[in-house]
Amino acid sequence: MMTSIIEVLLDSFELEAKQARCVLNVAKDADLKYTPKKDLRTLGELANHLAQVPLIDPSIFVGELADVEQARAREQELNRTTIADMLGIFDEGVKSIKKRFKGMAEKEFFAKTLKPFYETGAARSWAHFLPDIITHIAMHKMQLWMYLRLAGVKVDMMTYYGHHPE
After folding, report:
1. SS3 of 99, please?
2. Which 3 state secondary structure label does DSSP give 114?
3. Do residues 144 and 5 make contact, with C-beta atoms less than 8 angstroms apart?
4. How far apart are CA 60 and CA 79, in angstroms?
5. Domain tally for the chain?
């Protein structure tokens, strides 16, 4: 049986999410107020942002969050003070993305109907935005991993790739 592009991208999403969850989980041993430099986010702010990507990004892409102010308000609503609670937000988002795409027809996946508030060009499809979500998670996973290293938390490449003992 041939695998669809949706299945391939969803597999990539699930792998990246598994790895990001591992890095987030290791952050439970870190000082969430840590920042490597004065004008950067704290470790806790970065962890919150990463945890929120699977919920916030699709809401922006479908137009549920129509501007920067609405997106920031949603972020504030989703902010949590512990890694355990951030993992709950992350897991909720991962579950919602999997649900959204598991039954989606390729016609819908490729339909150019999505236009986030920050886009000035033509509407795009989920074929464009699902990879964006994956790379958004990957970028902040790496940032969080690096923050953890700089903060003295024991992480290595096994952690980065999702194989840290719990």
Report:
1. helix
2. strand
3. no
4. 17
5. 1
What's the DSSP call for residue 27? Answer: G
In-domain check, residue 166 = no
The model's pLDDT over 105-139, given as tens digits with 9 standing for 90+, comes to 999 999 999 999 999 999 999 999 999 999 999 99
Both tokens assigned to 56:
């916030």
For 129, half-sphere exposure in the C-beta direction (CA atoms, 13 angstrom radius) is: 27
CATH number of the domain to which 16 belongs: 1.20.120.450
Length of the chain: 166
The 10s digit of each residue's pLDDT in 42-80 is 999 999 999 999 999 999 999 999 999 999 999 999 999
- Among 106, 80, 87, 110, smallest CA distance to 17 is for 87
- Residue 109 exposure: Cα atoms within 13 Å on the Cβ side: 18
Cα-based distances in Å from 136 to 19, 32, 105: 13, 21, 24
Distance (Å, rounded) from C-alpha 64 to C-alpha 114? 11
Is the Cα dihedral 17, 105, 125, 6 positive or negative? Answer: positive
pLDDT greater than 80 at residue 29: yes
